[in-house]
Amino acid sequence: MYYPKKIKKVFLPLISLCMGLLVLCLSCNKTLDVPSTRVAGEPQHWTTLDDVRSGLIGVYGLFRAALASDNAFWLWGDLRGGDFSSFSRPDLKAIIESNLNASYPVIQNITDWRRFYAVINACNMFIERSDSALQDKRYTELNHTVDIAQVRALRAFAYFFMVRIWGDVPLITQSHDGTFEDMPRTSQEKVLSFCESELRAAAQDLPYVYGANDPQQPGPYYGYDYSTFSNTLITKLAAYALLAHVAAWQGHYYDVAVYTKFIMDNYQKEGLQYSTIDQLTNADGIFADRNPNQLIGFNFLKSNGEATSSGHIEQLTLGAPLISKPYPDIYVSKDSIISAFPGSDGNDERFGIDTISGLSRTAYFTNYSGEIPIFSKIKVINGGTQEPDFAVFTSAIIFTRLEELTLLRAEALAVLQQRTEAIQLLNIIKSNRGIRPYVEGDPRDLVTEIFNERRRELMGEGWRWYDLIRYNKIKRNNPSFNALIDQGGIYWPIAQDILGRNHLLVQNSYWAGK
Amino acid sequence: MRKILLPKGAIGIFSFSVCIIFLGFFHRSDASSTNTHPCTAITGFYQETTVRQDTVNQPINEEDSTANDTTVQISTTDYENSFSHSTDSRMADTVSIQVIDRQPYISLQQMLKGNAAGVYVQETSGEPGTMQNMFIRGASNPLLDIKGLYNAQPAVYLNGIPLVQDNPFAFDIQKYDFNRIGPAINYLASISPEEIKSIEIIKDPAMLALLGPVAANGAIWITTKNAHSGYRSISINSYVGFAAKPVVDPVNAAFENNFRKPFYDKYATQEEKLRYPAYLRDSTNTDYYGPSNWTDLYYKNVPIYYVDLSLTGGSDRANFRFLVNNSKTNGTADGTAINRYGASFFINMLPLKWLTASAMVNANKLVRDRNRSIRDRLAELRYIPDLSNPLAPNKDVYGNYLDEFDNVIDENQTNAAHGYFKINAALKNFQFNSSISFDYNEGIRDVFWPTTLLDGINFVSNYFGYNQRFIVSNTAEYTLKAGPAHQFKFTGGQVLQEDIYKYDYAFAYNGPNNFIKINIHDPTPTVITNPLSSAQYTPYVFPDKEQNRLASYYFKTQYTYDNILNLSALIRSDGSSNQQPDHRWLLSYAFSADWDVRQSLMQSSGFANELSLHASWAKTGVMVNDDRFAVGPQYKVDMGWPDEPTLGSYDGIAGLSRPYTSGWVGYNIPWEYTNKLDIGLNLGLFQNRLRTAIDFYSNDDKNQLLPVPVASEWGYSSAYESGMWTNNTGVDLNLAADIVKNPSGFSWTFTANASHNQNTLKALPGGLKEIVIGDRKLEVNKSIDSYWLLQNQGIYNTNGEVPTNPQTNQPMTYNGVVLQAGDPKWKDVNGDYTINNADKTLTGHFMPQFYGGFGSNLAYKAWTFDFNFSFVAGRDALNQYASSRLDFINNEDNNSISSVKEIWFWSKRMNLSQYPMYNPWSSAVPYQADQDLFLQNASYLKLQSASLGYDLSGTRLFTRGDKKLFNRFLVYLSAANLFTISPFKVDNPELINYNGIYDGYGLPIPTTVIFGVKIDL
């Protein structure tokens, strides 16, 4: 075989070329470190005050998204068994009729609990990692304590919300970052007792107000004063309000009485007030922007570009002439209005028909005389500009406010047979709305009347379905509802997608059989 | 028979190769040419030589000799040297791409459609300048979303510069993905066909490996006409013509009323009848019930034109080329158009005998007039006004609406520039190439829509974005002649590529009036001093930027034995900034072998004029085009929900969280890579008058990232995991036949190409066997382009027909909804008396299994006539248009983007009565699109183009004695998109989206007729 001598000559340059390339390669590694401007990596995160603040706000933002996506807050709370009818949307009609297996995208979306677990995972991450930001001297232990308390309360809130909808849910209290093992459902008793202990612990650490020299949170909070927060963040009373609801859901009315007493004794510390009918229904009222009366609420600030078209009850309930859409998606039929606001109560400021003139007072409704009354109790259109053409809304999602808690306390006391105080609390609401007080000896059942008052006062605030459950658990006088309670039909089905992803989950038995 | 002398190593490789596969080695019949690299031996297949990469098939035009000079040494020191592309082989490849340059094509995709084996082109809309899709040898991923589509596109090289395409990251802030924000102009509409000297489709694995990760999906190599020496020559090309409006069957409300009436009569309750849509309720309303003549305003016969002028010349030591061009292509529908202005300049210099310097600058401006569809407008608006009353089909009413567009600003423009500066030093056996090249394109869009178009609000948006690519590359090449027949070539190379993608996008709603059309983003609004301040608008601002770098090193060895045998091996290392630090580099390899069977074994036999075999295998990395995967676990803004994807703050404070919506990203993400294998045969028979090339291929794309659904209880919608493996297997066939060959008289050449492609999902991450992502299901060992559908078997006419589960006595349900009369009879595949996702099956294909084209070139003296067909077969479409027309109850009541009725709502596209009459109010949603009821065969055969030309330069008019006044004076008459035959009758079957969904939105692809001249002085 013929081998050219020339080859030898090649080796040297060849080897040096390879070596050269190798050197270039190594030096190039640095060139290839291009930091992303789009996402923040884990290693550098949780090291500064700003990381913690954005993490905390992130949890609130995720919670808002969980409630606002597909207007789920109202679809869960106000449609099933509630006062609303669907104008023409078949998907909403199916929910109203408790036909929750129906094949509509909206129903599939709102039976998916992932968004709550995103909140929970974000909380778990925060609890596990935020303390490393204490290396930033601007981030104090005191600030950290308050942050952790908020996040624990939010996590408990998320679990409570889910238990109300689905019953048993997997209880996950650690982030297990990067692993996604299947988890079975935990009994709701266990979940709720976790919520209760968490909320109790959080309540100890939470201040009444933020950025207003509360002993537990002195000075500005993350550099902002009270005007930035009002009651936007979870406060001490918010934690108590949640405790009260967790207890009420389990029928522990004695605890409800204790927790609500604390609220009734301290609500002025957080600037809570009973609202007038104008404050309740005006575009600049309690649903607008942020204000102290949103004890637990999620706001949308127009000034910060948070005005959205979805995530508000207005998207479902408003129609012409308030916005240009000719008909609302859902409305309260005249029959329901009449039955919820019986004329015998007197001149209800929320809705009533004047017996003399025959004219209606319709703070809650617009166009009552038309074919379809518009439920316009909440109508914060584009920051209160109320221009009908641009249907973006800025109303807050309010979970609870003082009236709601007052009626909850009344409910607890009525169940506990402390009728006098219960009636007194009920009458605060009644007198604020201009209707006849309930007097001892009234033939109407007190508990029923408290729930009727809740129906009127909290219409469109996502309470009706849960109220019906609590009411029927107390009364157990409606056989078909009893069957729902006993068979788990009060819960929603779990989305097929969720079941397909986690093989330890089983469908709620009521829906599995359907 | 010729005796072969081989060194030991080569014998080893050779015998090894022969043992496994019947492969051989490539060879060129033209022995005088010094073919150096098997992979780069791209020769004019249709010029009686072999082909490795398919050149866009076109018979040689013998008249066209002037434009392609072959004499000057410096014009051959070519651009692509930096990629170690040998250029000598391309010298012969001076194909006149006659099919292309005589048609009014504006995008590269149009030029390739049906004209190259292995390339499948989707022209999903006839709107000029819009995005079109290409796939070489199938799609490398399942195209689950529009990002998948971007990731499957091949690389396009213009004179060796890999053009930078738009980055799909802008879709992250979009609510709908119908169009990318910005001008959304097809970046490949900037290349004029007149400019192109050749287009090659690079499919050879080893050659793609040389190009690196950018070309992982295949490459399209465009060479433009370059500077060359000689007496200055001037060329003028021009055409004028028109695009013909389509034939449309307009209808009015009476038609729609008649269509809906039976549903109301049969199924509606009294209450539902009361909800009859207002626009159909009143039959005396002439807006809707009057004459339907909107088509007069919507469709028009429109002119198109093109003109260019080029000047080439200079000496052997320095020469240049300069060109300017302008074209305008109008769309036949909705006032659409694209206007292109281009200029380019080439210069080559030979300052020293051994040193060549060359440079190119090419700049284009593209201005697009967009369509006026409501859907696209609302998609950008992210806000759905009330849609209960559609546009009226009456010309007068519709005309009033169109008049409102006089107040609209909708300016779309892309400016692009690319260029290079290269030096080549040739010293005996050593060659050194160094180059700097860049590609920059910027998109600008300014929009203002007045209140009259948007139900009372106005909207302004501004977009500026750019994509920039900068490449520095160096290669060193050493040629070693080891004896009379043996030659080695060693090449080492380095490339550093930096891409920057950036955009600033701002939009604002609800300004004070329709006269103030400017959105000023003013952080401290001062209403009094600045009446235009943002206090009056509600502004939203989105800046975004992504930067990535790719560093590559490679070393290639090539061995040639006397033009009979050609072996090469490549090793390369690529590092990407989009890979995590511990997986930054990927080592990959390529091998190829070519064997000229005829010359080595059967030179004396008369069997064939050409017979050669080649085989090539390569592993190449695939670029990830999102920098978030380099970060690992990460935090971003994730406060929105599908309706409000961009909400970024809570209580006015910015918040961050893990990417729960977009999916978990962890550590240990390895490089995605592709293993490609190609085995082929070239055969020339009958004095090479029949030439065929056939290639079998198998491409495995491995380690692909996929958002895998995980247990939702950890908050994430999915987790990105590596490990998806897809395979594309198929055959590409080229054929050319000189049926009649008479240079002085009549000749006829027939050409054809055909491709077969079949994809398979080989593996899913984590060993999963199947996963469901959205509406799609991926199952191992099934194809990746299937629809996942319920099987429709008719209708339940009575409740009694609904089967009952004998065990529970419960009737059949659809996801829990009891099926009733008027519901569809869906096949209960698993027999559990519940119709749900488990009863859906994978059916059909949205990527074609067969595609290609064929045509002929006929020439008689100075006359030429060509025609070309393209075809697509074994491909289906899901007719969402029919589904949404029939599902009018759900669509109309939801007031969502799917409720939009464009003006073409008032046309009859298909007979909807062929579908069963289901109860549209049923909770089972009988007309949902995901059932095989709406699956249709969308194969087609299309007469793509025909052209008749006559060269006047030889006529008495343009000759003085023996001397021609013009080197060429060609006049031609061409027509494109002449007719289509298809079982898909609804519309042109090309107007189907990349994922196989036909939604009716594609504007018609018009038939065009042009008259053109080509003059070379």
Can you walk me through this structure?
Chain A is mostly helical and 514 residues long. Chain A has helices at 6-31, 49-68, 72-79, 90-96, 105-110, 114-129, 141-166, 188-205, 226-229, 236-249, 253-266, 277-281, 313-317, 334-340, 402-415, 419-432, 446-457, 464-475, 479-487, 496-501, 509-512; strands spanning 40-41, 84-86, 296-298, 330-332, 352-353, 360-361, 365-366, 374-375, 397-400. In chain A, β5 and β6 (360-361) form a beta hairpin. Residues 1-96 and 525-532 of chain B have low confidence and may be disordered. In chain B, a hairpin with a 2-residue loop joins β11 and β12. Chain B has 1017 residues and is mainly beta. Chain B has 16 helices and 46 strands. The radius of gyration of chain B is 30 Å and the shape is globular. The interface between A and B is large, with 116 and 110 residues. β1 of chain A pairs antiparallel with β21 (634-635) of chain B, so a sheet runs across the interface.
